[in-house]
From TrEMBL:
The keyword Transmembrane helix applies. It comes from the Bacteria. InterPro entries: NrsF. The chain crosses the membrane at residues 26-47, 59-82, 94-114, 134-152, 159-178, 190-211. Pfam families: NrsF (PF06532). This is DUF1109 domain-containing protein. Keywords: Membrane, Transmembrane, Transmembrane helix.
Length: 213
C-alpha cells in the first residue's frame, strides 16, 4: 500500500471535534455533583439545626473554604488530565496549599490544647462515620465527572481517575459541611481528608477500566 493510500484510509470518516467539548461536559457534570451531594446530605443526614447561628462565625467559613479550595485545584487538574498526554500543572499547588494550611492549624491546636483535650479535638463526635458519609455524598459526582472525563480522551488513566474522584469528594465535602457539627481543624485534617481520599483511591483503581476510550 502506498503512503498516500494509507493516509487516505486513516483519514476516512474523520469529523472535526466540536470546540468547547470540555466546557460543556464539566458544565453538565459539576452541577450534578453539587446538587446530588446536597440533596443526599439533606435527605440522609439533614442540615445541622444551628446552621443559622454557625454561618455567622469565621470558623464555619474556614471549614467551608478547605474543601472549596481543594475542589478548585482538583477541577484544574481534572480538566488538564482529561486531555491526552496532559500534566496536572497548576492543580498541584492549588490542592496542596489548603492541605498544608489545615495541617499546620491542626498541629497548632493539638500542641496548645490541654492534654485531656487533644484526643477529643482530633476525634470529635463523628470520626467513625465522617469519611464514609463523604464517600456516599460523592457518588453522584463520581459518576458524572467520570462520564465527563471519559469523553475527553484522557491517557493517564489512573491519575485522571484519582483526581476525578478527589474532585467529586471535595464537592461532596462542601455539601457535608452544612451537616457536620465538627468545628476543629484537627478533625478536618484527618477525617475530612480521609473521606476525600476514599473516592480518590476508588478512582485510581477504576480509572483504567472506566476511563478507557
Amino acid at each position: 500500500m502506498k503512503t498516500e493510500d494509507l493516509v487516505g484510509l486513516l483519514s476516512t470518516g474523520i469529523t472535526p471535534v466540536r470546540s468547547g467539548s470540555a466546557t460543556r461536559r464539566f458544565c453538565a457534570s459539576l452541577p450534578i455533583a453539587a446538587i446530588g451531594a446536597t440533596l443526599l446530605m439533606a435527605t440522609v443526614f439533614g442540615i445541622r439545626p444551628d446552621l443559622g447561628a454557625v454561618v455567622k462565625t469565621a470558623i464555619f467559613w474556614e471549614k467551608l473554604a478547605f474543601p472549596v479550595c481543594l475542589a478548585i485545584g482538583a477541577l484544574i487538574a481534572t480538566a488538564r488530565l482529561a486531555r491526552p498526554g496532559a500534566r496536572v500543572g497548576a492543580g498541584w499547588p492549588v490542592m496542596t496549599i489548603p492541605l498544608v494550611v489545615v495541617w499546620l492549624a491542626a498541629i497548632l491546636i493539638v500542641v496548645t490544647a490541654a492534654p485531656q483535650d487533644r484526643l477529643p479535638a482530633i476525634l470529635g463526635h463523628s470520626w467513625r462515620t465522617c469519611p464514609f458519609n463523604i464517600l456516599l455524598l460523592a457518588a453522584p459526582g463520581f459518576i458524572a465527572i467520570f462520564w465527563a472525563v471519559k469523553g475527553l480522551a484522557p491517557t493517564r488513566l489512573r491519575l485522571a481517575g484519582a483526581i476525578s474522584g478527589l474532585l467529586a469528594s471535595s464537592i461532596a465535602t462542601v455539601a457535608y459541611c452544612f451537616h457536620c457539627p465538627e468545628m476543629s481543624p484537627a478533625f478536618w485534617s484527618i477525617w475530612y481528608v480521609a473521606g476525600m481520599l476514599l473516592p480518590a483511591a476508588l478512582g485510581t483503581v477504576l480509572g483504567p477500566r472506566l476511563l478507557r476510550w
